[in-house]
Amino acid sequence: MQTINIVVTSLEKTINSLPIKQKLIKPDLFIDEIDNLLPVLGININTDLTEPDSTSSDRQRLCFRLYKVRYFLQQLRDEDVKVSVVMAILHSLLQLAKAIANQQSLKSSNKNDDILQILLEHIPYHIFWKDCEGRYLGANKQFAQMAGFEDAQGLIGRHDIELGWKPREAENFISYDQIIMGTGEAALNVEKPIRQADGSNRYILSSKVPLKNKNQQPDGIFGIFSDITERRETQLALEKSLTKIHDGIKYASLLQRAILPNKALLTEHFEDNFIIWKPKDIVGGDIYFVDEISGDDGILISLMDCIGHSVIGGFVAMLAKSIYTQILTEITNQKLPPSPGFILQELNTRIQLLSNENNDFTDIGLDACIIYYSKKTQQCIYAGAKIPLYVLRGSSIEVYNSGRKSVGYLRNDRNQPYEDVSVNIAKGDMLAFTTDGMVDQLNDSGLSFYKSRISSVLTEHIDQPYEKIKTALLKSFNAFKLVEEQTDDIAIIGLKI
């Protein structure tokens, strides 16, 4: 019974020293532990539950104390409480009490204490306790060996400065203990490095709890920690790998930005223009190209929404750029007319061939809009794959809808035609086309931004400089989504005839 009292006392002190929000997780588990322990001790909580007085037996006093612990746990049953190492302490103490209760036939309390020490040494944690002066009163074997002793007997009565720690480390332990003793507050789940007596460096996850006397004043410290060196090293290796990946993505972003066209070409062919290009992540799948055709006074403007975001979308965009450049080179060399529909058809065929040739290659594709414009002849030709063209004239908007087929993807017909459409334009008109990133953006109410909001901003500001139109669009977009994250890559182009 003496050792059982020691365990219950430790249990009570552990609980009483903790802030309410950091005591336990799943109190029901510990209530069940106590309910299972009581019969082993020969205690009937219904008949033995009376307020102890001078005539009460040790068994009755123990029963009442266990009941108070159980009642506290019931109070926590419905609270949102925090996981901590203290859960392991309480679980271990209850397991000790149960094990010792099953040894009640042993007459010697010394033997019971031996059982307690054996059990402590098999708990997968380093455990120790000190008095209010910082002297070690006990520990398990795991802690003793870390401190440079064969067993706990070698460190009992010693201070940290007398153990195998470095002087500065020992001073830190002492200062930390004094803070806990002074505040009476537990320090839970503290991750820190420690140098063992053999000179090796380890990382530990430590919790320290002030033990209090009958006047609720701190008179000692109970400590428990686990060695998390391997986990820490794995975490550092992961962080190092993530840093390399992040650096690689930033480099990919530089490459992607490097292939974006110079706006000077647009300035030469159009009265005004704006471009909004906002990848969801560092790199993205939305891309645009502006190319002059050798031997032709016109210009090709292409906008593509490639499958995927981030790195995947970025790689598909780079692939699309490579194939697109090959097609334009062939158009120039063979002196073919710069047909947007022909370019889309060739993109579709070549992406499909690439997917078929590589069995492990992911099925890829894109949506696109391409226009050919000649400032000299005022000719404008459009072809699209799920990206329409908007022609704004004053407050009116004419929409040139594309076909319902994307480019690439194995589900598409390899010889899928894309139609060239002649666009009626006049001086001062705006040509606008956008991927679905801004259109499909959700706000905190689950509503989409929709094309109507884009159209409304464009028509309202159509007579203003296009840089102001760009600013107005972004302002409207940010006001709509507020704190919500951007959900997709965004690309919008506006051109003034």
Give a short summary of the structure.
The chain is α+β, with helices and mostly antiparallel strands and 497 residues long. Helices cover 42% and strands 21% of the residues.
Descriptive key words:
497 residues, alpha+beta, six-stranded antiparallel sheet
Commentary on this structure:
The protein is of the alpha+beta class. The protein has 14 helices and 16 strands. The protein has helices spanning 2-16, 27-40, 58-76, 85-101, 109-121, 141-146, 167-183, 229-259, 264-269, 310-333, 340-357, 436-439, 450-460, 466-481, and strands at 126-131, 136-139, 187-195, 201-212, 218-227, 272-278, 286-292, 299-306, 365-374, 379-385, 389-393, 396-400, 407-408, 421-422, 430-434, 490-496. The strands form three sheets. Strands 7, 8, 9, 10, 13 and 14 form a six-stranded antiparallel β-sheet that branches. The protein has a five-stranded antiparallel β-sheet with strand order 2-1-5-4-3, with helices on both faces. A five-stranded antiparallel β-sheet has the order 6-16-15-11-12. Strand 7 (286-292) and strand 8 (299-306) form a beta hairpin. Helix 2 runs antiparallel to helix 3. The longest helix is centred in the middle third of the chain and has 31 residues, at 229-259. The termini are far apart.
Low-confidence stretches: 17-25, 78-86, 103-112
Strand content: 15-25%
Q: Report the end-to-end length measured between terminal Cα atoms.
A: 96 Å
Q: Structural class of the secondary structure composition?
A: alpha+beta
Topology pattern, helix = H, strand = E: HHHHHEEHHEEEHHEEEHHEEEEEEEHHHE
Shape: elongated
Query: Number of helical segments?
Result: 14
Q: Using only CA atoms, what is the Rg?
A: 37 Å
Largest sheet properties: 6 strands, antiparallel
Tally the beta strands.
Answer: 16
Helical percent range? Answer: 40-55%
Mean pLDDT: 80
